[in-house]
Structures are given as C-alpha cells and as structure tokens.
Amino acid sequence: MLTISKTWEKWGKSIDDQINLLGINRWREFPEIIKTIEFNNKTHYYKYFDTYMPMINTESPHIIEFGAGFGGMSELFLTIAEVRLTNIDIDPMLKLQKHYLANNKYLGRVQFIPTLKADSIQWDQSYFFSTFAFTETTPETWEHYIQNFFPKVSAVYILGSKGWGEDNLPEFNWDKLSSVFKRTKVEEKILGGVPGIEFFGYNFI
C-alpha cells in the first residue's frame, strides 16, 4: 500500500499554503525549502550524478527519481544525459518541480507522478534514484516498493537515514531491500551529522 508520512503531509500542506500566500515565483522563500536549499546545491548534485551514472548500462535510460525536491537534480539529469525522467513526489513538490523546469526545453521529457499513483509507472528496466526521501516514507510504502517495483528495475540508488524519526517509524529494513537484488553495495555514512546509508542495488550482473 502506498502512503504518505504524517510529516510530509504536514510539510506538503505548508508548502501549498506558501504557494497560495506568496506565489510560486517566491518558492525559495518557503520555510521548508530554506531548510534544505543549502544542501540541495549543484556541488552535491554533481557528486550524486557522478556516483549514480556508472550504474546505468543503457544509452537512453528511464530514471525514476523519488522525492525530487524543487527539481535541481532533474535539471542535471536532463541537461547532461539523454534520459527519460519520471518524478514521484507529493503534489505541492510536483508543482515546484514543474515551475522550476518550465523554462527549459527538457520539460516535455519529464513525467510527474503523485506519490500515491506510483503504480501507474512503467517500472520495467528503469533506474531508481532517491536522496533523503525514500527513507522518509512509511513502512507500508517501503514494503510496496520492495514487493512490487524494485524487482522490475535495473538498478537502485538510495541515500538516506537509517530510520525516519519524525513519525516514530521503525528503522528502514535495509536487509530486506538487499534481498531483492542480484548484487548490492551498502555503505554507512554520516549525513547531516546523523548516521545514514548509501545503498546500491543491481538486477544485472
């Protein structure tokens, strides 16, 4: 079952309120964006890009980004690589991504899918990417992806916390996630001063 965490429901409502109050052109002033804008910079994007792209073994991949922020990483994927991109996010964040990407010629190559409608995506042989987002969902969503989506993809890259404490959720089951793939690499990291995980999963040898 696909669900949204209580924390992201709250943040989503706040972002929607800010869009209505200030207008979407002033998205950089939204409190939820200010919290992450320093971390979501191009230096980090290039680092993630350089880490992730060697996982891809096809010339025109379908990349599925879960939790795409305001669209900065999407822009990099679309600018440098010949990809087809699907962004999965809560509705207010999809609004920001569409706004951010609207002024470039790559917008037509992005499919925007609400979090609760991920079943509508063509997952076969796609490449999944998520930084600081997938581990912030709910156990029900984790289980749905592990059971229904990840067995179909070519590769997965997830960077995130060991557990999402905001909603008092249990620690993410990295062992169960690893069992889906033919080969994996899991590394512990310190992310923003807290313990985290960098996960690579491959369904090809």
Structure description:
The chain is an alpha/beta fold and 205 residues long. It has one domain (6-202): Vaccinia Virus protein VP39 (Rossmann fold, 3-Layer(aba) Sandwich). The chain has seven helices and seven strands, in the order αααβαβαββαβαββ. The protein has helices spanning 6-22, 31-37, 42-52, 72-80, 91-101, 139-149, 174-178, and strands at 62-66, 84-89, 110-114, 127-131, 155-161, 183-191, 194-202. It has a seven-stranded mixed beta sheet with strand order 3-2-1-4-5-7-6. A hairpin with a 2-residue loop joins strand 6 (183-191) and strand 7 (194-202). The protein is globular, with a radius of gyration of 16 Å.
Tally of separate domains: 1
Mean pLDDT: 85
Count all strands and give the number. 7
What count of helical segments does DSSP give? 7
**Which strand-content bin applies to the residues?**
15-25%
What value does the Rg take, in angstroms?
Answer: 16 Å
Q: Which overall shape is indicated by the principal axes computed on the Cα atoms?
A: globular
CATH top level class name:
Alpha Beta
Class from helix and strand fractions: alpha/beta
Adjacency order of strands in the biggest sheet = 3-2-1-4-5-7-6
Q: How far do the termini sit from each other? A: 30 Å
CATH topology: Rossmann fold
Oligomeric state: single chain
Q: Which H/E pattern describes the elements?
A: HHHEHEHEEHEHEE
Full CATH superfamily name: Vaccinia Virus protein VP39
The major β-sheet equals:
7 strands, mixed
Poorly predicted residue ranges: none
